[in-house]
Amino acid sequence: MGRHRGTPEDEPARSAPRDRRDSRAARRRRRRGRAVTALAAALAVVVGLGITGWYVLAGRGSCGGEDVALDVAASPEIAPALREVATAFNADNPGVDGRCVVVEVRGAESANMTYGITGSGPAMGDTGSDVWIPDSSLWSNLVKEDGGDAVFTDTGTSVASSPLVLARPASADGAGEDADEEAPSWDSLVPTSAPTAGDTGTDVGLVDPVRSSAGLATLALVAGAIGQEQEEENGPELVAALQALQRGVAPDEEAAFGALTEEGESARVLVISEQAAWRYNSEHERSPARVGYPAGGTYALDYPYIDRSTDPVVSRAADLFRERLTRDAAQEVITAHGFRTPDGTADPDVLDPAEGFQRRTPEDLPVPSTQNVQRLTQAWNRLKLDSRLLTVVDVSGSMLEEVPGTGMNRMQVTTTAAVEGLNLFPEDAEHGLWRFSVGINNDLDYEELLPVRELTAEVDGQTHKDALETTLTRLQPVPDGDTGLYDTYLAAYRQMSRTYKPDRVNSILMLTDGNNDDPDSIALEELLTTLEEESSTVRPIPVFTIAFGPDIDPEPLERIAEVTGGAAYTTEDATEIGDIFLQAFSQRLEPTAGQGADASGG
Predict the structure, then answer these.
(1) Which end of the chain is more exposed for a tag (fewer CB within 10 A), N or C?
(2) Buried b (16+ CB within 10 A) or exposed e, 388-397
(3) What pLDDT shows up at residue 104?
(4) Do 275 and 238 fall within a single domain?
(5) Which intervals of the chain are annotated as region Disordered (predicted)?
């Protein structure tokens, strides 16, 4: 039925006299004349508005009444393509119940929308919408898990896809020489063991996983590749991988793109989506990136279509727009913006093979489970908390003993491992250094060598990190020194308690090769009681002890670890200290770490 209905006088009166019919015909001719004049005026307006205005008026002639507004919140990079499709849709859509549907597409960060719906993280601005198109099902799955009573219908439709790729500057040494050169696999992309002196591994960049699907998927892909994708697996290999990734994290995509503008960085790679790489190259024609595809497959962003409306009419409108997006014409618009179709088909005229883009669809790895994503996000956040660590090194006489097969004594092996361990920490971590034996500082068993301060702090013309490395390498054992372990534990604990910083992970690392042999020190039971009384679950200071040597009694060290929420590790091989550092770090990934849990290790 049209927008207007005829009036009774528009219909012929079959029984009317001829003169009345003639009179009516004359009136109709006059009305037609006025209508032609009005139409001519309308055409003049249309011509003034342009062809687009005529197209809209003509297309919307089949619907009327109050428009059905459809608010679509889409990931910012796909929003421009969707607006193009929406413009054509608004012009010629058949409408719902005779009412025209007007689609408005706006860019909305997927993480921001997720946190706004679930209340599980920081969100800014309006996070409501009728339709939501995030860049990945990673986010929509989190909403399903944590969204509570939020209205949320996953239509099962993907409107585009874009696999994760490894991009690096085309100007980097060797980049682009061999288009068929195989890119690294996920398990070889980052180190999974403690760094050693002179390590020059791949410098990997990614966008903060808390805000980015590409970053979040990278965590899951790396964890899966090294066999630690399950909920109970937060081992040292994962710690090493996460720490390596944190060294190259960028707060947002624009900052991450900065890595691609640097020249001569042959080892630098950036994990981003294929469409992001295309977008970067479109904006940086003089310094394009070279794209590679991870060996063994990759994860693809899938842009799911989510209906969030509570109004059945709006939901029907949403379904109309969803169907439009699946048509060939709409998919051509989307692929012209650097995306692939949902089944992975790319436009080779857009994704240029000369820049490394491949026509064939990369092997698609499955979407990580929601539980795994949540665990890895929590691990990432716990591990990136700024550290505040006091390292206490044993300088008793037994540290002079040679470590078989190394050509070094225990002190040299210990300090070498400690120096390498510094590379596990970000630059804004805070570190301090003590040494201990018996009576080495007047009547005290311990002595502060360097206070706890940020590694990048400038002191006497050098950074604090450089000062730590120099001081560690120059440490010498006291030839006749005994091991004043218990007094040192208590003094270190109280020092860190007095200077506690709630925005950091405050902890103590004790490196020793012996048992307490100071007859004048505090007794073990009194030490444990005192630590228990002075500790606090809201101000935790976990104590980690790494002890090596054949005569170590691990029980006292494990009891101290239990009281403080730390961990104790014993080994007869001092060369294992670097790997034990990573095991100690893995304690930070546990929700109960630092809160009195039994985290002792052997």
Answers:
(1) N
(2) bbbbbbbbbb
(3) 97
(4) yes
(5) 1-31, 169-189
Distance of alpha carbon 384 from the chain centroid:
12
Expressed as residue numbers, the domain containing 57 is 18-61
pLDDT at residue 232 in the model: 52
- pLDDT top residue among 362 and 34: 362
Judge if 156 and 168 occupy the same domain. no
Specify the number of domains making up the chain. 4
Task: Determine the Cα–Cα distance for residues 186 and 203; give it in Å rounded to an integer.
Answer: 13
For residue 599, is it within any domain? no
Total-model pTM: 0.70
**Residue 10: inside a domain:** no
Q: Which residues of 7-36 are buried (b: 16+ CB within 10 A; e: fewer)?
A: eeeeeeeeeeeeeeeeeeeeeeeeeeeeee
Q: Which of 335, 343, 319 is nearest to 153 (CA)?
A: 319
In whole angstroms, give the CA distance from residue 88 to residue 102: 11
Number of Cβ within a 10 Å radius of residue 459:
12
Tell me the H-state helices in 125-273.
137-146, 186-189, 213-225, 236-246, 253-257
Q: Does 192 lie in the same domain as 284?
A: yes
Can you give the CATH number for the domain in which 151 is found? 3.40.190.10
Residues 522 and 438 in one domain: yes
SS3 content of the chain, % helix, strand, coil (to 5): 40, 20, 40
What is the rounded distance in angstroms from the CA atom of residue 468 to the CA atom of residue 80? 52
For residue 340, tell me if it sits in a domain: no
Q: Which residues are bridge partners to 12 per DSSP?
A: none
Distance CA 120, CA 110 (A): 13
Residue with tokens 């090596």: 548
Among residues 358, 377, 396, the one where a domain terminates is 377
pLDDT at 136 over 90: yes
pLDDT, position 228: 61
| CATH code for the domain in which residue 447 is found | 3.40.50.410
Give the pLDDT score at 483: 94
Most confident of 89-93, 261-265, 448-452: 448-452
d(CA 46, CA 44): 5
Q: What are phi and psi of 203, to 5 degrees?
A: -90, 110
- Say if CB 300 and CB 362 are below 8 A apart: yes
For residues 48 and 75, membership in a common domain is answered with no
Query: Do 432 and 476 reside in the same domain of the chain?
Result: yes
Clarify whether residues 101 and 151 are in a common domain. Answer: yes
